[in-house]
Design goal:
Distance between the termini: 28 Å
Strand order of the largest sheet: 5-6-4-7-3-8-9-10
Structural class: alpha/beta
Order of helices and strands: HEEHHHEHEEHHEEHHEHEHEHHHHHH
Radius of gyration: 24 Å
Shape: globular
Largest sheet: 8 strands, mixed
Number of strands: 10
Length: 436
């Protein structure tokens, strides 16, 4: 976005917007994305590289053996490769069809990307990763998933039916040098979702959510109902609440009174789906290339939309600066999840009989998985919130023979504890604070 940096460098949040030759709103100052040195000191590239290299070594030496031993990749998340650590920060857009996801990306880039389709009907029928490249081209999903330098090898677990609905759109752009944007198909409702898609849509969004630094949920004033499928998608984002931002798009299509009612209805709908006591931040605006329609809301609405737009763009601007911290945060989160997974698997193995009645005991364990989770929680003094989803775990577990699992190996657990308690703090201490 041309001029965003000049906007953010100012102490006042109100900016002057002026229509360009095409009538779209452009920022009045002439700076570029991510080029300001006023708002914050730049992070040394040596610092980031060293931290990421340190995490790579720790993963291979201490965390990966635990994940391999207890089949963590089958239950929770595929094993990490070097490309997963080196990937640029990602932003994912989710929402029902025709809520303006592709238009939002076009608005950010100030241009269309290869393979973009915009229309009132469900037009985007695939997951599209928009990233920086030497020239404009679209790369098919099967090709991009096997490239070693791309962080998408884990998507092969969703099969060819998904990879045929996945593509990478590359183009040279200053914004894409710092972040990667993920466009998703519009979430449909009811049976249409299950009959028309031959892959696990919720599973794919969950995979991307773990990799992303920011997740934007887009809503339309005329589409406030949250369908069953959208509920499942939002539920799959559990554990990534800090990444979620809600955007009420196309807000200039309703007048002030209607907007107030729409906002209230949206918060009520979200309250039933997001099971958190905190109020979710909702950005209100109209993110497209047309000038804001002042007729319904008047000058007060226009000023509100501009302030909200500035706040959202500030969030986007901070993504690259926080990318290294986010990477460490996700790594620690993964390590804790792997440790709890190891406790669960080894506990189930311990409960199995030595000789007779293995099939009956396995069925009983799977049926009473909630009770087993409570036992593990009390035995090892673990927080209940860190345990995986029972239904998903039960579904995966039913395809395994529990008797063939490994017993608890204290050395592997101790290695991860040492990594969390000493190695990672030491790694951060050695490279100091990059913002000093």
């Amino acid at each position: 976005m041309e001029g965003l940096d000049g906007l953010l460098a100012k102490k006042k949040r109100v900016a002057k917007w002026a229509p360009d030759r095409n009538g779209s709103l452009m920022l009045s100052s002439g700076a570029n994305w991510f080029s300001s040195s006023k708002s914050a000191k730049k992070v040394s590239s040596n610092y980031v590289t060293s931290i990421i290299d340190g995490l790579k070594k720790l993963y291979v030496k201490k965390l990966k053996p635990l994940e391999v031993t207890y089949h963590f990749s089958d239950f929770v998340s595929p094993l990490l490769a070097n490309s997963d650590f080196d990937a640029k920060p990602m932003v994912m857009l989710l929402g029902q069809y025709s809520t303006g996801k592709t238009t939002f990306i076009k608005h950010l880039l100030r241009t269309s990307y290869p393979g973009a389709h915009i229309g009132p009907e469900p037009t985007t029928d695939r997951f599209v990763v928009v990233m920086n490249g030497p020239d404009e081209r679209s790369v098919p999903g099967n090709t991009i998933a096997v490239q070693a330098d791309m962080p998408f090898s884990g998507l092969t677990t969703f099969g060819t039916s998904f990879l045929s609905k996945f593509e990478c759109s590359q183009m040279p752009h200053p914004l894409l040098e710092n972040i990667t944007i993920v466009d998703t198909p519009g979430v449909l409702s009811g049976e249409k979702q299950r009959t028309q898609r031959s892959y696990d849509f919720t599973g794919v969004t969950s995979w991307f959510a773990a990799k992303c630094d920011l997740i934007l949920l887009l809503f339309d004033p005329h589409k406030l109902d949250i369908s069953d499928e959208f509920k499942r998608v939002i539920a799959s984002l559990q554990g990534h609440d800090d990444k979620i931002r809600v955007v009420l798009n196309k807000a200039d299509q309703v007048d002030t009174q209607q907007l107030m009612r729409v906002y209230g209805a949206l918060m009520w709908s979200l309250g039933k789906v997001l099971n958190t006591p905190e109020v979710t931040r909702v950005y209100i605006g109209s993110f497209n290339d047309r000038p804001i329609n002042e007729a319904p809301t008047g000058p007060v609405g226009k000023e509100l939309f501009e302030k909200e737009q500035d706040d959202l763009l500030s969030d986007l601007k901070n993504i690259p600066k926080k990318a290294c911290d986010r990477r460490i945060n996700e790594f620690v989160k993964r390590a804790r999840a792997a440790k709890i997974h190891a406790y669960i698997i080894s506990h189930l193995k311990k409960e199995m009989p030595a000789m007779m009645g293995k099939a009956k005991k396995q069925k009983r364990l799977i049926d009473n998985l909630e009770d087993e989770f409570v036992k593990i929680q009390k035995e090892h003094h673990l927080p209940a919130g860190d345990f995986p989803n029972v239904e998903h775990f039960r579904e995966v577990l039913s395809g395994y023979s529990i008797d063939k699992f490994e017993k608890l190996k204290p050395k592997l657990i101790q290695a991860v504890d040492d990594m969390l308690g000493y190695d990672i703090p030491e790694l951060l201490k050695n490279f100091g604070n990059p913002y000093d």
